[in-house]
Design a protein that fits this description.
There is one protein chain. The chain has helices spanning 2-18, 50-70, and strands at residues 21-33, 36-47. The chain is an alpha+beta fold. It contains 2 helices and 2 strands.
Length: 71
């Protein structure tokens, strides 16, 4: 079980190091007056610091290494 968690952390850490964020589009209603509706697309971004991916990567490596010693 620990080895699986460690491998998942390694994969997530590598992904977070390569892609430091993502963006998506959200529809916002600007005017809602009866039958008349006006909406606009708003671009939102989600970013995380690259060192967080490094921490997850190192943590995953430590978990995998320690699980091999116990097995």
């Amino acid at each position: 079980m620990n080895r699986t968690v460690g491998l998942v952390l390694i994969v997530i850490g590598v992904i977070m190091l390569i892609w430091t964020g993502f963006s998506y589009t959200k529809k916002d209603k600007i005017i809602d007056a009866g039958p008349i509706q006006v909406s606009a697309d708003k671009k939102e971004t989600v970013n995380w610091p690259p060192y967080l991916g490094g921490i997850l990567l190192i943590g995953g490596i430590v978990i995998v290494a320690s699980s091999k010693k116990n097995a």
